[in-house]
């Protein structure tokens, strides 16, 4: 009598494949999607759970309809794909959860479903897959399990040569010597060495049942290894490693993948609220347990689904977008902010990936993480993420600047100085009332990078600041846009009685602005400074003259040149030397000629 396995192999006579029409391909793709979901549900839920019953009914209905029309469904099995009519109809390259790979690794090449398939038979098929999937890789074999069940309307093709190579792998043979002359005694006497070997085999068997790694230097194993080529042995090791990875896949992640796939496949929008509630609860649980990798996977999957349906099913895309917003709403982020303990987070990359998916709404939380952490690497990552948020929404960063957080405020100001957002200039004006010197200096530097009259007028506001460094920085960054009002204001400031008491650095900054203006009014004022100073000026008067010479050199106009020539003739000492040096830089002249002296 032929074995059941041989009988299954003989079904290969009816495996001739013919190209399928597109309508059939679509039906088979739909069946496989429901099959994969049903298998996932079978691994997660008890056999009597209503969710599994619903998946089973949907799968059976579609299979029955197809089999009634076509008599059988013939699926080819590749390493990571199912085929139908020589076309790939389903593909999953992830070995840990790939259903094609689950069959392929045990040597299955074809899978057949026949007309007459009952729901209970299909339930048994799913239970068999679940049972094998939960076994250790060295024990689980889907081909053997299906052979034992011998389903009437579910068949497969698995060549014997593949199966035979697996027999005995990892098993330690018992080498027990029996003296036939003593068989009449009714007992076999084992030597102490035999007893020790039997005991060792029992221990090895128990260890393998507990899922521990079996020893690799068992007696007789070399003979078994000799049956394999090096490539076969390597392939078997890779398969066992992949199976071990599959067993470690957490049930929660499998469940999450299943629910996301349900959203993708479900066309009945009235079912969406129930599914959404499940996903929101799972998201909250993941956040509570600081499982940010799971939370990131969920959000990323939902974003992908939303993008897929954006053009084809806008209503569904809107529902998914609404679900994402509910998960990442401000109250949820506030709760996360209150409960998040950075010391308890072991996977910072996943945390930042999750916050990036949340988007600019998470900016305040990231800012607090930046302030609360002392780790420079962590702070750099947080700052990079804030800058990404700022590129999408500059306003989200503007709300984060506080005088009590000067480091973060300065970083945000520097970043926003390169933004083209029209709100940046009014935002920088808000720092006029700050007391923190470092923040004000950063705002001044940012305003100086903006070629805009409004920014220039804000700088003028900083000129009245009580701090000398702030006033000096404002003057250094001030520009002249042919605005007579600003020019008159600066000339009035440097003409005031209190101005000579300013520091040399501050004086230079304001006089330099007059030089950069290249205006006739500024030149006239600077020329007066050189003329009216007494023959023996005081230190402050001499300092003002030297600042005026520097400003005229910056101005470099014909009128400025004439003012410097006059100064070189009228003054002595440092002032005359400064005028001559300025002329040399401007024109290459060293000292006025006799005719120039007479003209002057």
Shape: elongated
How many helix segments? 31
State the strand order across the main sheet: 3-2-1-4-5
Biggest β-sheet: count, sense, barrel? 5 strands, antiparallel
| Class by SSE composition | mainly alpha
The helicity comes to 55-70%
Low-confidence stretches: 1-17, 167-174, 212-216, 245-249, 589-600
Mean pLDDT: 80
| Overall strand count | 5
Assembly category: single chain
The fraction of residues in strands falls at: under 5%
Distance between the termini: 131 Å
Integer-rounded radius of gyration? 42 Å
Quick overview of this protein structure:
The chain is built from 31 helices and 5 strands. It is mostly helical and 600 residues long.
Write structural notes for this entry.
The chain has 600 residues and is mainly alpha-helical. Among the domains are: 4-166, no CATH class; 481-600, no CATH class. The protein is 64% helix and 4% strand. The protein contains 31 helices and five strands. It has helices at 4-10, 22-44, 50-70, 99-104, 119-133, 142-149, 160-166, 192-209, 221-226, 230-248, 251-265, 272-288, 292-309, 314-327, 330-339, 348-358, 363-372, 376-392, 394-398, 406-416, 424-429, 437-448, 453-462, 468-477, 484-495, 504-517, 520-532, 539-555, 558-570, 573-587, 594-599; strands at 72-77, 81-84, 87-91, 110-114, 154-157. It has a five-stranded antiparallel sheet, with helices on both faces. Helix 13 packs parallel to helix 16 (348-358). The longest helix is centred in the N-terminal third of the chain and has 23 residues, at 22-44. The chain is elongated and about 120 Å long. The N and C termini lie far apart (131 Å). The model is unreliable at 1-17, 167-174, 212-216, 245-249 and 589-600 (pLDDT under 50).
